[in-house]
Every structure is written in C-alpha cells, then in structure tokens.
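Bug report

Summary: structure tokens for Serine hydrolase domain-containing protein differ between web form and batch submission.
Environment: batch mode, default settings.
Steps: 1) Submit the sequence below via batch. 2) Compare with the web form result.

Sequence submitted:
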Amino acid sequence: MSEVQGHCDPAFKAVREVFEDNLARGREVGAAVAVHAAGRPVVDLWGGLADHRTGRPWRHDTPCPVVSCAKAVTATAALLLLDRGAYELDESVVTWWPEYGAHGKEATTPAQLLSHQAGLPALGRRVPVDEAADHGAMAAELARQVPEWEPGTAHGYHVVTFGWLAGEIVRRHAGSSVGTFIRREFARDLDLWIGAPPDVLARAARMTTEDEAGMTPGDAAGRSAAGRSAAYDPAVLAGLAVSLADPGSTLNRALYNVSPREAEGFNDPVMLAGGWPAMSMVTTAPALAAFYRDLVAGLILRPATLREATTRLVRGPDRVIVVDSAYGLGFQPAESTFGRPLPAAASAFGHSGAGGSIGLGDLEAELALAYVPNLMGHHFAGDRRAYHLVEAVYAALA
C-alpha cells in the first residue's frame, strides 16, 4: 500500500489521519479525498492502488467511476436550462416531449422527473448494455411505458432511468447529450466525464471487491455504517436482500433491466463510454469537489435555484429501495439516506454512489467535498469511510 500523498491544511489534519487510517487498516485499495472551504482548497489527498491486479498506483489525476454521483451533475445540467428559461418546473413535460403523454403520464412535470416521482423506476424489458448508449431510444422506451404508480403520488429511487428522464430535459432543450452539455457549460476544465473518452478510461482506477482484491473481510465493520440509523435496521436490510434476489421486485428490475455486464461490473467500458446520465460518471476527487465548489459559489446555478433543488421535495417510504428516502430536484438533501454526521445533516446536500463515493456541498458552511474510492463499500448499509471523513471535515470547521 503506497503512502498518502498530497496536501492538507494543518487545520484539517484530522481528515488526513482518518484517510491514512483507512488505508493502513485495509479499508481501501485506493482512494482520494478533496475539500474546499470558503472556496479555498484545504484537502487534496490520495493513496493506494488504482488497480490491484497490476499494482498501478493511484495518482493525483486518477479518475474513477463514481456511479450515482452522476445524478447530481445531470440534475445540474437540467437546472441550468431552467435558469435560462427553457421550461418551468410545474409545466407538463408533454409541452416539449409530446410522446411522453402515453398511459396517463400526460400531467407529469419536470419536477417529478427530477425527484424520483415519475413512476418509471425500471425499464420494461432487459436492455443490452450497448443499446443503452442510445439515449434517445432509452427515452422513447420510457415514454411508451405504463407507470408503476401515478406520477406525483409516490416516490422511488429511479436507479438508472433517472438519467434518461432528466437527460431528456437537456436533449430536448439543448440538443445534446448530458455529457456533451456539461463539458461545454461547466466541466470544460474539470476531469469529470459522463461518457468518458478512451484516454480517460485507460488511466481510470478499477473498481473492485474484497474478494477480487484478496483482502481479509474481517474489517467489514470499518466500512459499514449499519445500525447508525433506523434506515439501516437489520430487518430492513434483510428485506432489501430478499428484494434484490427476487427477479420480479421493483428494486431488482430497476438495477438489472439495464446494467453493466456481470464480468465487468462498474468497470464496464461500454457503460462508462456510453454516458448513462444516472450512473456512468468518471471523475477525480479534485474535479468532483471543484464542481461542488462552483455550485456553492453560485457559478453554475442561481443561488435561489440551488436552494430549491437541494430542499426536500419528497420524503418517506421509497417504492424501490424499501427504506425511507428523501429527494430534492436531483439532489439528496440532508435528511435523506445519504448518511451524514451532524452538523453536516443540518445543511449538506449532494449525492452518493454505489461503492462508497460521495459528492457533497454545503451552502451554509461554504464547503465542498468529494471522496472517491475503488473498493466497493456497503452502499445500502452506509459507508463509514465516507462518514468519518465528513465528520472530520466538519470538526475542523467548528
């Protein structure tokens, strides 16, 4: 395991200590963490291996798949067009997407597409991974579907379909894919990609599991935050396991009706190059933190728009992931299942990703943070690696 590299402001030394401890105790294969406070970079650390198979070290510019962290970036693209007057949150989407009105979906609003209320959490059939790169075809597929609940009457995590629903706002109003739009509008100078080119994929970290890396599973408790909240009650987690194993469950269909090829997992180059707007983002920790820095500073969205987007719009039983959840307009607000320690829970927002990655912003604290690991964590049970890093950051601000 390589030593931790990078810089850390002395006031944030506890962040470095947590990061070093995670690596030393075998809770990581490789990872990076970056923090901006009041617009100033205060933490930029990395260490470990980008690829355990070859021994390739993690470097400052090592990008990594961050899966659902992409949802916040896709939502930002859609909200930027809202700021420009392209549409209204409460209008019917059939105003500019007439095909979407089939099967009782004609009253669906953009706000419902962005807050997991659309009732289309899963594609109606198994879709090959290469077919999913055709975003127009995926949007058309969803437009033809019958919703699983009346739009706006319930919410459920649209694991993959969120990207094509929110992404259609961008396609219809900007005439480009989400990946192209974000590069043009606010990620031009960032190592942040939804639809990564070959040279980025060539230097990307490889996502792995304990078994693949030959690690001892004895320190799983160091990664899992299970039991920290009612959402992670063992009985609830057991229900999740049953739901995942049932091919007919909403959760199973949401995850697997279109998913990376089993042999590739989240490293699937077809998925990562295909730019699925909900889950195929590849980025470095410094770039993801810089995205949140610019959001918090008002450089991408109007402050009023960001506040609206990060305020809870729905909360309660999630029709897909079983546990209670909360969503704003594409962002997970403070009280959501995105486990954050106090005082982060008061005003933080962002999005987590399967495997343990997080992107976080805080308007009140003027804070931006990104944590990007390549050892798959316990996504539904929470992840203490991220939890303790966030905890240390907020302690430094106190």
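Above is the batch result. After comparison, the two runs are identical; trailing whitespace caused the diff. The two ends are 32 Å apart (CA to CA). The longest strand covers residues 40-51.
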